[in-house]
Amino acid sequence: MTTRNDLAPLWAPWRMEYILGEKSGGCFLCDIARAPARRDRRNLLLCRGAHGLVVMNRYPYNNGHLLVAPYRHVRGIEELNAAERAEWMDLTARAVAALRATMRPDGFNVGVNLGKVAGAGLEAHIHQHIVPRWNGDTNFMPVVAGVKVIPQSLLSAYDQLRPHFG
């Protein structure tokens, strides 16, 4: 059996920017929403709705991992008003359709982690995860080496998905 000490290092130089970069200490979803539209590609923001947004996860579980969030900084589903909830689901449907059209996954994991104990990395701003899944996307790397291989760059995936959000 392989132990953590036996694992080979995985070279991921793109992580250094995050590790050494200045941390805002605020909410990255609020920061992205407030940024000017000219920064949408840099921020991986695919769609701005009336009440929320669709953004790519910068540290994805799988290619095309998207987040759907309201603009309003709230913790729970029950805090959203009817218009926010309706658009949240509409943006989720649009995101799933865009992923189906561009990446042709075999299925999806769609869900919300409410609270740290439920796995929320950002507890204070509710957001929904959309993770495309393919038959066989769990290969030997996570099982044997404890790493996940993401075969497409974020900006390449952004450029592929962005036209589907008009």
Description:
- The chain is an alpha+beta fold.
- It has 5 helices and 5 strands.
- It has one domain: HIT family, subunit A (2-Layer Sandwich).
- The chain has helices at about 15-20, 30-35, 80-105, 140-145, 155-160, and strands at about 45-50, 50-55, 65-70, 105-110, 130-135.
- Strands 1-2-3-5-4 form a 5-stranded antiparallel beta sheet, sandwiched between helices.
- Strand 1 and strand 2 (about 50-55) form a beta hairpin.
CATH class: Alpha Beta
Radius of gyration, Cα only, in angstroms? 17 Å
Shape: globular
- The overall pLDDT, averaged over residues, is 85
SSE pattern, N- to C-terminal: HHEEEHEEHH
Task: Indicate the structural class.
Answer: alpha+beta
How many β-strand stretches? Answer: 5
| Fraction in beta strands | 15-25%
What's the architecture, going by CATH?
2-Layer Sandwich
**Count of helical segments?**
5
Sheet of most strands:
5 strands, antiparallel
CATH topology: HIT family, subunit A
Helix-residue proportion: 25-40%
What's the structural domain tally? 1
Task: Catalogue the unreliable spans.
Answer: none
Question: Going across the major beta sheet, what is the strand order?
Answer: 1-2-3-5-4
Tell me the distance between the termini. Answer: 49 Å
CATH superfamily: HIT-like
